[in-house]
Design goal:
Elements: H1 2-9, H2 13-30, H3 33-50, H4 53-70, H5 73-82, H6 107-118, H7 123-138, E1 142-148, E2 154-163, E3 166-175, H8 183-192, E4 196-198, H9 211-216, E5 220-228, E6 231-240, H10 249-295, E7 299-303, E8 309-312, H11 314-320, H12 324-329, H13 341-354, E9 358-365, E10 371-382, E11 388-397, H14 399-427, H15 433-445, E12 452-455, H16 462-471, E13 480-484, H17 493-498, H18 515-518, E14 523-527, H19 534-546, E15 548-549, E16 558-559, E17 563-568, H20 572-577, H21 583-589, E18 592-595, H22 606-621, E19 627-628, H23 630-638, H24 644-658, E20 663-664, H25 684-689, H26 694-704, H27 715-719, H28 723-732
Parallel strand pairs: 12-17, 12-18, 13-14, 14-17, 19-20
Antiparallel strand pairs: 1-2, 1-6, 2-3, 4-5, 5-6, 7-8, 7-11, 9-10, 10-11, 15-16
Helix pairs in contact: 1-2, 2-3, 3-4, 4-5, 6-10, 7-10, 19-21, 22-24
Length: about 750
């Protein structure tokens, strides 16, 4: 159309005429009636300018017709005012009878019919109304509405017939068969989307050989396609068997208008029907879901964004003994236990107002007046914009779990008490006064957080005492971490205690958590504390003073809450004098000292210890002993036990393995008959009192023991210090112990 206007302005009249015709045809094929009307109108102007009034009037009539079909009443009025010959006087309203004069049909009646179709949304009602109006306005004896199925097959939806002065409409919903209408005319209308009008079907024409025409011999036939834009919706079929030329051009024009409105209304009604079907499916799904929710043992509720109650399942109503209306209106606090209502509200209000998921364990009142424990979870539902739309609440009965937890807690407490009574202070066996004194001190210091320093000979059970302190403290539920400071190389002791960062030193391929971090909130036991290097002593002192430490290779401090229990068999005061142990660290550790008695000092406990170890190792070996050989028991009680309880344990375990009788006995040869080790004047005392002569004293002990470091006659035993301590001193003082092996141990007369 734009190209046509350009050609008109440039004076190319012939080109403009052709382009206007193309624009009209294109608009008609696309179903754009408003564009077709405009093209007719501007084409008419061109012909008026050229003096072709007859042609121009034809275009104007078509323009007015299109505007009228489009519903542009203002434009129709404008044309009528400027071109009076287009105006037609209205006549009385049409009364529907077959053969009624066309002059009785006016624009108002057609507009009313179109409005009636456009206002109907029910598909069945629309079809019935469409068929009545179409048959009445067509002057037809019979009419069919044929719609295309999803596979584009024509199906008869309804049939209208006239008789006794009225129109009867019946729903057919059947395939369009040759016995229903001329198939050739139907398929032509579907294929070309053009109307088929037979003024006299009985006369010879293109469709005369159609089976239906030959058999029924109808007089007037009209097949009118129903098209919305370019989409074919269906076909309206009309026939009149009484008179030829029943479907005049004016009637056809009216039916064209009805068909255009029918196309829109049928599509809208179809969409509305599909929408209703979808909504019904949704409602059915909701009903089924609610039935499922009602069968759920959980209590499930739906709340609005403000907490308003929208839905609750039947299980919850049955539990509370309420109707839905009562549940919706009842004060929520009546559902909860009085002791928990305020606490629950204070804990959940903030998250509820923030739209965050949360949960709480509460007791809810049942209809019989009893309370049961429930785990309630609140989950928000948001839309695509993140706005809160609903709250979904699920309450699960956890009464059985709560009761089981309570029973387990009671059983655990009882079991702990029984273990405490049966274990006699965590495997510390004995009733001698020295041991009772130690246990009394353990009972006093255990509930505190004070540092404890446990001293005594090797094998006296210092770690057992440390564990007893931990288990009777408020930290008993947390970790107990044991570290043997003498067993870790001095270069790695700091990393072992405090951890290290990746790359802190060669071989540190990843971060490592130290023992102090593992013991957080609990207790750390530092055995052989006297073997700590000087730099590690400084770091440990910081932990005790500042309650913080640094990982090796890290820049920041880590706060710690750990109770420190230390133990040693060394004389730390002598080490302080020898400047190998810090005095300030000693005072921090020695807040509460506990001295462990040697087994020589508690000989009356030896029979109990023997029975304890025999029972323990015989069960492991699958053996049973009736009694202990008296001679062996006397021997065990008379032996000095330089290795203390550890040595006694090893002797009993070995004897259980080799003993084949019901009476337990010990091989006397296994016990050294040498008197208790006494340190020569050049031994322990000078080592403690004369630190400057430490190297000389160690060399003397090595010479007397023939270069042996450990064993009953070794240098460590002579000096009264652990083997690991002596080995450390030999390395630090650069003593070659191998040069003493040639002379052999000195003999005593």
């Amino acid at each position: 159309m734009v190209s046509a206007e350009i050609a008109r302005l440039e004076g190319r009249a012939f080109d403009a005429m052709q382009l206007y015709e193309q624009a009209i045809q294109s608009a008609r094929e696309s179903g754009f009636v408003q564009n077709e009307a405009l093209a007719h109108e501007v084409a008419a102007r061109l012909y008026l300018e050229r003096g072709f009034e007859t042609i121009a009037h034809t275009y104007l009539r078509h323009a007015r017709n299109c505007y009228d079909r489009w519903g542009a009443d203002g434009k129709v009025k404008h044309l009528d005012e400027h071109y009076p010959f287009l105006h037609e006087e209205p006549t009385p309203a049409f009364s529907a009878t077959i053969g009624q004069p066309v002059g009785n049909l006016d624009v108002a009646t057609v507009a009313k019919a179109s409005q009636a179709l456009s206002s109907e949304m029910s598909l069945n009602n629309l079809i019935e109304k469409l068929m009545r109006l179409a048959v009445e306005h067509a002057g037809a004896e019979r009419g069919l509405l044929i719609l295309l199925s999803h596979d584009d097959e024509p199906r008869i939806e309804a049939e209208a017939t006239t008789g006794q002065g009225r129109v009867e409409v019946a729903v057919r919903q059947a395939a369009a068969a040759p016995s229903d209408l001329p198939q050739s005319a139907l398929h032509y209308a579907i294929r070309t989307r053009e109307r088929v009008l037979l003024d006299d079907a009985s006369a010879g024409n293109l469709y005369s050989e159609d089976e239906y025409v030959r058999r029924k011999r109808p007089r007037s036939v009209l097949c009118l396609p129903i098209v919305k834009q370019t989409k074919l919706i269906g076909v309206l079929y009309f026939e009149n068997n009484l008179t030829p030329r029943a479907f005049t051009p004016d009637r056809v024009a009216v039916l064209d208008l009805l068909a255009s409105q029918a196309a829109i209304s049928l599509e809208n009604a179809g969409l509305y029907s599909d929408l209703q079907g979808s909504e019904e499916k949704i409602r059915q799904g909701e009903r089924e879901l609610r039935q499922i929710l009602d069968l759920s043992p959980q209590h499930i509720a739906e709340l609005g964004p403000d907490g308003s109650r929208l839905y609750v399942n039947q299980a919850a109503l049955d539990y509370f003994g309420l109707s839905f209306e009562e549940w919706r209106d009842l004060d929520r606090s009546r559902f909860y236990h009085p002791d928990e209502w305020e606490h629950t509200i204070s804990q959940t209000r903030g998250k509820f107002l923030s739209g965050l998921a949360h949960e709480a364990e509460v007791r809810l009142l049942r209809k019989d007046g009893k309370y049961r424990w429930f785990l309630i979870r609140w989950n928000p539902l948001r839309d695509e914009q993140g706005r809160l739309r609903r709250w979904y609440v699920a309450a699960t009965d956890i009464e059985d779990r709560k009761q089981a937890e309570q029973r387990l807690q009671v059983e655990n407490v009882a079991l702990r008490e029984e273990i405490d009574r049966a274990s006699m202070f965590e495997q510390i066996v004995g009733t001698s006064p020295p041991l009772r004194k130690v246990l009394s001190r353990v009972s006093k210091v255990a509930p505190t957080d004070s540092s404890v320093l446990i001293t005594g000979e090797t094998g006296t059970g210092k770690e057992l005492v440390a564990r007893a302190i931990h288990r009777r403290s408020r930290r008993s539920s947390r970790a107990f971490v044991s570290v043997n400071c003498a067993a870790i190389p001095r270069d790695l002791i700091a990393s072992e205690l405090f951890g290290h960062e990746k790359g802190a030193f060669t071989g540190a391929t990843q971060r490592r958590i130290g023992r102090f971090e593992l013991a957080e909130g609990g207790t750390i036991f530092l055995d052989e504390i006297g073997e700590l290097p000087a730099e590690t002593q400084i770091a440990l002192l910081r932990v005790l003073q500042e309650r913080e430490f640094e990982r090796v290779g890290a820049g920041g401090s880590i706060p710690t809450d750990v109770r420190v229990i230390a133990a040693t068999n060394r004389d730390l005061e002598a080490a302080i004098a020898a400047r190998t142990f810090r005095s300030d660290l000693f005072y921090r550790l020695n807040v509460f000292p506990i001295e462990m008695p040697s087994l020589r000092e508690r000989r009356e406990d030896i029979p109990l210890l023997v029975e304890y170890f025999i029972d323990r190792f015989s069960r492991q070996a699958g053996k049973s002993f009736q009694a202990v050989n008296k001679k062996s028991l006397d021997l065990l009680q008379s032996y000095p036990w330089p290795g203390n309880i550890r040595e006694l344990q090893n002797v009993i375990e070995r004897s259980v393995i080799v003993c084949e009788t019901e009476h337990f006995s010990v091989d006397e040869s296994w016990l050294s008959r040498q008197p208790p080790v006494t340190v020569p004047s050049s031994g322990l005392e000078p080592l403690r009192k004369l630190p400057s002569r430490e190297k000389e004293i160690i060399e003397v002990a090595l010479s007397e023991s023939g270069g042996r470091v450990y064993g009953p006659s070794g240098a460590a035993a002579k000096l009264g210090i652990p083997r690991s301590t002596l080995e450390h001193k030999i390395r630090s003082l650069k003593i070659n112990k191998n040069r003493f092996k040639t002379s052999g141990p000195s003999k005593k007369n």
